[in-house]
Amino acid sequence: MTNLRTTDVLINALSDLNDLLAASETTIELTIVGSMAIYLNGLDINRMTEDIDYIDYYASNEFIQMTKSIAQKYDLPSDWINSRAKDIEPLPSEIQKNLKLDNRFSNMTLKYIDIDTAIQMKVYAYYIRGLEKDLSDLKTLTPNTSQLTKGVEYIQTQIIHHHGKSQFNKDEAEINELLEFLKNELN
Questions:
Q1: Is the peptide bond before 92 cis (omega within 30 degrees of 0)?
Q2: Checking CA distances to 51, which of 1, 38, 155, 165 falls within 20 to 30 Å?
Q3: What is the pLDDT of residue 57?
């Protein structure tokens, strides 16, 4: 990694990706989720992030080869831009309606989730993974109680979708404890 902030490195990598797409006369549209979406919303990520998560795009072999060559140039992981988040379902109900647009690149349209959606997804991620990076991102997002409550409702949606109402009933006390913890930790 260079001495640049990782978000700056990733923007430079996206710029190089755009140049390669332009040279091959290809255009793409990516919907960005995760920490890079927080950055695109104008918030300063106070931790290192080395990847960009996207949904709603099927990567061609040509795209994958482009991203691998850029990874080598910037000493990034080979999956510095990836679709791992595509498996999250259901996505928050308002995601498509609330997407924002970044048009800085000629051959790559970046859509990205808004802050409310990012909070929902980060609350869920913290519930599932319990990782410090998700809590750090939530601190950056500075959610209010209403936004945290929507995040907890998203957890409920996920559990019921994947495991049924009876599993949610078993997990409800733990989820309520999480909400109280987040209120205390983030406010």
A1: no
A2: 155
A3: 92
Contact between residue 140 and residue 45 where contact means Cβ atoms under 8 Å apart:
yes
Q: Among the three residues 93, 114, 135, which one is the final residue of a domain in this structure?
A: 114
Residue type for position 139: K
pLDDT for the residue numbered 48? 76
Q: Which pair of tokens denotes residue 14?
A: 């996206």
DSSP per residue, 6-18: HHHHHHHHHHHHH
**Which phi and psi (to 5°) does residue 30 adopt?**
-120, 140
Q: Does some domain include residue 1?
A: no
Whether residue 91 is found in the same domain as residue 24 = yes
Low-confidence spans in the chain with pLDDT less than 50: 1-3
Bridging pattern class, strands 52-55 and 81-82: parallel
Using a pLDDT cut of 70, give the percent of the chain over it: 97
Q: Are 115 and 137 spatial neighbours (Cβ–Cβ below 8 Å)?
A: no
Closest CA relative to residue 2, chosen from 39, 50, 65: 50
Distance CA 35, CA 43 (A): 10
H or E stretch covering 127:
helix 115-129
Whether 175 contacts 155, CB under 8 Å: yes
Residue 153 belongs to domain spanning: 118-186
